[in-house]
Amino acid sequence: MLIRIERDYSVSGDRYPQFSTNFPLPLQPYVSVKDWNAFIHTLNKKLFMAFCPWTIGNLLDIFLSIVTLYASEFVFGSVHRKRIANIEAYVADFARQHDLLAASLRNMGFLNIVFHTKENFARSTTLYSSRESVENQSVQSMPSALTTTPSNLSTYSQNPGAGVNEWMNSIL
């Protein structure tokens, strides 16, 4: 089963990605509420540090890039890229500790955290190879509270009786 946690725009708008801190019920057999809260708060702090342009590391990165005509990024690398790699490793480590698989945040455009349970992983290894497996795959989606993004509006229009904190089935 795929479990998707959507980005929460009510915290920071679109300045930097932050994810909803609500506990996703489908993760209950795998993750405790305490572990989830520690994970999501740490992840949100790390995302703030990586994407906020006013942190010391990012300001130094910008200054060095301008002075060296971006040669410093080729020689030393970027602080931002290192932080993003650290965030992806953190999410992968959390997933591994709780017997889950995690999709890359970069591949998801920092819009969703996607966890895949290992219980039916062998059955769904062709998830991206055939259209039938995508249509038959169940996806649990948690819309962010207090937001009205286009993705949430389309979910509500398909299922008008669903509440904001209820889990809805949808297809990727």
Automatic annotation (TrEMBL):
Segments of this protein annotated with the region Disordered: 138-160
Bilayer topology annotation: Peripheral membrane protein
Cellular-component GO terms for this entry: endoplasmic reticulum membrane; endoplasmic reticulum palmitoyltransferase complex
Coiled-coil region(s): none
Location (main, coarse): endoplasmic reticulum
Pfam families in the cross-refs: Erf4 (PF10256)
Cell location: Endoplasmic reticulum membrane
Keywords for the protein's UniProt record, in alphabetical order: Endoplasmic reticulum, Membrane, Transmembrane, Transmembrane helix
Transmembrane segments: 47-71
Family: Belongs to the ERF4 family.
UniProt subunit comment: Interacts with ERF2.
Protein name, as recorded: Ras modification protein ERF4
